[in-house]
Amino acid sequence: MSTASTRLPEDRYGRSSDERADRKLRIAAIVLGGVLLALVGYFAYYYVGRNEISAQVITFKATEDKVEVHLEVHKDSGADGYCTLRSQSADGAEVGRADFRFTGSATSIDKVVTLRTTAKGTTAELLGCHAG
């Protein structure tokens, strides 16, 4: 005696509703993935590609009321901007902060800038440089 099959005959009733839902989810995932990839590309360009000014502190010399900072700046030709420096005391309190502007067509600037402080500073920290 043979048993009756509980499977539906293939290709008789069309695709199941699960297959249609899977296809819609797959399309939605592709669209959302494309949007996410576009956003990541935009932010990567905006934050990395548009960085026209970069700098680094070479050395610094602290006295009771100022910190002299040897700053090396690299920028695009014709780009104007500023770099923000700060100094902290031995206990970690901020004792000075200032923006130093850079203009002109030179692409490399090597300059000693003076940061006035309210107490003796023990650090010279470059917080960042911005175009504009």
Automatic annotation (TrEMBL):
Pfam families in UniProt: DUF4307 (PF14155)
Alphabetical UniProt keywords: Membrane, Transmembrane, Transmembrane helix
InterPro entries in the cross-refs: DUF4307
Membrane spanning residue stretches: 25-48
This protein's record includes keyword Transmembrane helix: yes
Protein name in UniProt: DUF4307 domain-containing protein
Organism ancestry: Bacteria, Bacillati, Actinomycetota, Actinomycetes, Kitasatosporales
